Prior knowledge:
Layout: H1 2-13, H2 16-79, H3 84-91, H4 98-116, E1 122-128, E2 133-135, H5 144-148, H6 151-159, E3 164-166, H7 171-174, E4 191-196, E5 200-202, E6 208-210, E7 219-224, H8 231-239, E8 246-250, E9 256-259, H9 262-267, H10 274-280, E10 282-289, E11 292-300, E12 307-313, H11 314-317, H12 321-365, H13 380-420, H14 423-439, H15 443-461, E13 466-468, H16 469-486, E14 491-497, E15 505-507, H17 512-522, E16 530-539, E17 542-549, H18 556-564, H19 571-583, E18 588-594, E19 598-609, E20 612-613
Parallel strand pairs: 14-16
Antiparallel strand pairs: 1-2, 1-7, 3-4, 4-7, 5-6, 8-9, 8-12, 10-11, 11-12, 13-15, 16-17, 17-19, 18-19, 19-20
Amino acid sequence: MLLLRKLAALIANAKFRIKLIVSYFLLVSVIILILGFTYYRISASNMLMNVRSSLGNVVLNNNQLLDEKLEAIRGKSDVLPVDSELYQIMIGLKMSDNESLLKADRRLTELLFQYFGGNDDIYASFIVTRDYTFGNGARMYVPSAGFFNSELHLLAERSQGDLAWIPTYDFARTFKDQHMEPISFEYSQLVSAVKELNLTYIDEEGIFHSLPPGMERPVLMINFTTDDFGKLFKDYASKNEYRNLSYGIVSAKGDMIIHSERELEASRKAPLWLEEAFKQGEGSFEKVIDGKEMLISFDRMESTGWMSYVEIPVEDALYGLKSLQSVSFLFLAVMLLVSALLAYLMSIFITKPIIRIKKAMKMVERGNFDIRIPEKGRDELGQLTRMFNHMNGRIQALIEENYASRLREKEAELMALNLQLNPHFLYNTLTTMYWIAVENGQQEISTIMRNLAEMLQTSTRNKNETWPLRTDLDWLEKYIYIMASRFGNQFKVSFEVDDSLQDMMVPKLFLQPFVENAIIHGFAEMEEGGLIVIKGWYEDDQVLFSVEDNGAGIEKDVMDRMKSGEVGSTGMPNVEKRIKLLYGNSQGIDVYSLAGKGTKVVIRMGTWTGGQRR
């Protein structure tokens, strides 16, 4: 509240031209800022919409490409169970005959290659039975017993002949092989698809054959590298200017299939927004993640049911607005300069007549009532000028008619009073009184008269604001003598002033108010034993003076009011104002006092080097 009051006072006391310039400047600035902010918000909204559309297209295209590839693989896997050769091989297997198993393995490997070998995205494919795994074991090893005891086999059974997709998984843990857990496998980052093969066969005679009821169904296992899943995302990330773009594919359970940051891919930590994204299926939204606002576009794959997404910080999405901001700031600066120039020119046009009236009023203040301002224009300022001229003429007439004689009488009275109070007249009178006292043997009165005359002569001869310290101390000693005579030697005064300070220029009579306060107030309740110690020294290049008494002391609130001039004598605030005016605001007076313990006044008066005050 105090700050607002000071600001209001500052505005109220400012010049009219300043008010006019500032008002016009603020008005133009507010308009420009509002327009700039609105334009920026609209541009940001449009740019964010374009980025959202671009990211959505990338996610949609990536999913369409993956769906086409995976649906093609699904189609081939649907044809495989009715392959006659596969049926014959599986029916003719003799698990106890190693030679039979090796021949079957070679043939089934060739058969799998015919179906899936032309696809570079397929890492390895197998037909897994409980006793043997058929396929290309050179790239990947799949233990039969571990497979049939894993969730992969359970998922194949639940799918009832449909191709089931499995996110990346820990190979050794899934197949429950503790010996392989410390080993890092390339195919621990593979995506797998499993399908239970309900093999059937129609012979040349049209007879339909299927696997015997007691025979366990083999399982087709296809393994894919994850590189191709994010290829389109990777290409998009490398071709745009977004510095913090990230992408990924995640399952409905939160398993991370791929991620642009490998450490996040390995952690398989589901995004917090995943559940909401699966409810929508596709689209985009903005979320705050780790304190940063992110734009996320997502789409669900039809083939696997997994969610593909791309996310970038909104700040990066609006990176293109940096140049717009620079141009806007430049435009704002130019417009502000132009508005300041226009405000200045306008202020001159408006305030020029006011300045003429102000100058004329100053001349009237000095007594020149003949001044007249040229009357221009018929607006309010022109009317004000005419009214001023009319008023000035009326004042001149009234002065000449009514007050001229009275002013001359007052002037005569003041001159007489000045003659009566002429310092030389007073000095001569005191000197005369001094000699009369001497002739009549009044030694004490004559000494007081002599001191008072010398004090008056010293004060009147020196018209400057400052004089040497020795002069001030000499005057003070005469003043103390008179006061001691008046109070019946109720107190004593001692001086402890460094001799090197005697020629220092100090404010006239700067110690007298504090000595007077000590005598009048400090010793008011004392009949004897009063002591005043006046010191002057320099400490750390700082010139210090002190006046210390052993009187009654003063309360803190009274001391504060005395220093501010609210109580009694105005001597203390007057001295402090003179010191600050002469030596700077860092100098001044400090008062230390306790009730019944006396008072000490410390005066700081500038720095001291080589006998000179700075």
